[in-house]
């Protein structure tokens, strides 16, 4: 399971011209689910993402996690994160989880975020989405379990 996390001043996701998820300061989480991923990996990744200290403290150092900084999260499914890009000029997607399993684990990850007390907005699984982001920093990290 893969999370590309971006520290955001704001982020939103739109489907068919309608905004379906929107946050102020916090994290935009692009989530990729791979074959073999399970609830245990989703929980571990959720713990890492929410515990990752990438927000500035009073001294300007990255010492706060998203909860400590008072932020929220926008979680967007992103199957292309599981792409094989090692050779050729076209990505391969055989490493990604089957759609039904990927959706189940995506929803499970979002539930894990909410269980930890965060406001968690979402995109729409498998939809054609337009994601807007004001990246703060810019600060972007790739986390994988």
Automatic annotation (TrEMBL):
Protein name in UniProt: D-aminoacyl-tRNA deacylase
Name of the top EC class for this enzyme: hydrolase
Organism: Erwinia aeris
Catalyzed reaction equations: a D-aminoacyl-tRNA + H2O = a tRNA + a D-alpha-amino acid + H(+); glycyl-tRNA(Ala) + H2O = tRNA(Ala) + glycine + H(+)
Gene3D superfamilies (UniProt xref): D-tyrosyl-tRNA(Tyr) deacylase
Family of the protein in this entry: Belongs to the DTD family.
Pfam families reported for this sequence: Tyr_Deacylase
Molecular function GO terms recorded: D-aminoacyl-tRNA deacylase activity
